[in-house]
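Side project, low priority. Logging it here so it doesn't get lost.
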Amino acid sequence: MNRFSLSVSAGIARVTESAFAPYQSAVVRIGFSVTWLLFLLREFPHREELYGPDGPWNWELARQLIDSNGAFTALMWSDGRGWFEVVYALALLSSALLLLGWRTRAMSVLFMVGVLSLQNRSVFVGDGGDNVLHLMSVYLVFMRCGRVWSLDARRARREQEARARGERVTDRVGPVLWAVSGCALITVTVADRFHSEWTIPALLWAAWCVQGLWWAVGRLRKSTEPRILFDVIGNVLHNGALVVIMVEACLIYATAGWYKIQGSRWQDGTAVYYPLHLDYFSPWPMLADLLSASGTMVMIATYGTVIVQVAFPFTLSNRRLKNVLLAVMMTEHAVIAVVLGLPFFSLAMIATDAVFLPTPFLHRIGGWAVRARERLFSGDDGDGDGSGKAAPEPADEDAAPARVGFTA
């Protein structure tokens, strides 16, 4: 019993004292922000037909649907063309800043608002990748995904170095962002513009209030208990979001694999052949013909897809086998992006799979990136925190003084 109690205590300590997988979290952040940013840029010439006033799913139809399902979208606050352009521009800007890791906590909230606003405005536009992005945008709000490979990590390191030299560090940008976002929330709430269920508005208010409390607690000099408590809560939320992402990835592959098993075309080994010859999914007809020319290759691809998807959740306890299947799945998504012309679906799935990437591999990737940057910019000191070493207590989107007694 004592041994069991000790193991439970050790597990609770691990969950509360550190934010797990900082490198994997950074890759997930980068992956989804890149996916959404590239999608918005590609569809920029067609944005008004997809999500704006010129689309077949007009504002009044969207209003009726939103009134019935209670989904959140800022595009229902006004039907003007100017407001649509503002929301689209904010979605672009938040994606780019989240990619760079600048004020990650605030940008993750704006990123979620942009994703939900555009996708819920025209729910019939998109594919499975949009559904994954929709959910992940919410999970990113709870994650400390800027602890490494971000401008926040570089800023935190420079602030720590300045404090070590006895210099006073003052953050002016954070309070300004907090004040501006608070004014926007108050305006929307007072004007009763949300027109959605309480979940997302409550999350926005909670994120705003918690961030203000975090900033205030970080300025306390005599007492460390509130700072420790906030850090523990942040770690628990981050680790919980990571677990949810892992479980969701396993459910996606498991359900997809088991549904495929029930299909006759998957059972006879010919299912992969048919999407290769659909005009809508054939950007490279000659390449599709080449891949489908061999019946043996089609059968291997069909059965291999089912086996990998069904087996992946059961291989998580075996690190080597998991890494092999993870590489196979990422390669498969890359092939789908090229052959079937579904780049954003594939990018979204690869970004989801990245949560399972091994840390040593990401360390090497970070080291390669730093060396490549140093060759290009010989005067740079490598502040990007990609050397592959443990993150030196980075204060990603939160205040550096709140990091008391915990490691990354």
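Brief comment: Residues 368 and 387 are 8 Å apart (CA to CA).
Revisit when time allows.
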